[in-house]
Write a structure and sequence with these properties.
six-stranded mixed beta sheet
């Protein structure tokens, strides 16, 4: 028997960048309205472009190296993967597709069971 699940909708795309000011200029020159800088408590920062359907682009930069070090030490998988991406592929690019969910806890259990959890 095949177990079916509902598709998870697109939430946002993560776009690593070395400098948010450069990403802001680049996206603005393409005609996008870029949101003010958002500062995460784990050392990263973003300047998002939001679309009418609720999806968005997330240009992501490291704003505080000490905070990212601390977050990685505490097991923050998102920050650790961002660092690995940057070490292996550079500071500019496309690193993640983030999907929406109605039940993150259930998804986590399912992903752990399938051996594909990000932590």
């Amino acid at each position: 028997m095949i177990k079916t699940t509902q598709a998870h909708p697109l939430d946002h795309l993560v776009l690593p960048t070395a400098r948010l000011d450069a990403a802001r200029v680049r996206l603005g020159s393409l005609g996008f309205v870029v949101a003010p800088t958002g500062i995460h408590p784990f050392g990263t920062e973003n300047c998002c472009v939001f679309f009418a359907d609720g999806t968005y682009l997330e240009p992501l930069a490291v704003g505080d190296d000490l905070e990212t070090d601390r977050a990685i030490g505490e097991g923050n998988v998102f920050v650790a993967r961002d660092r690995l991406y940057r070490q292996n592929l550079g500071d500019e690019g496309f690193s993640a597709v983030v999907l929406g969910t109605g039940d993150a806890d259930a998804d986590h259990v399912r992903y752990v069971g399938a051996g594909m959890s990000a932590g």
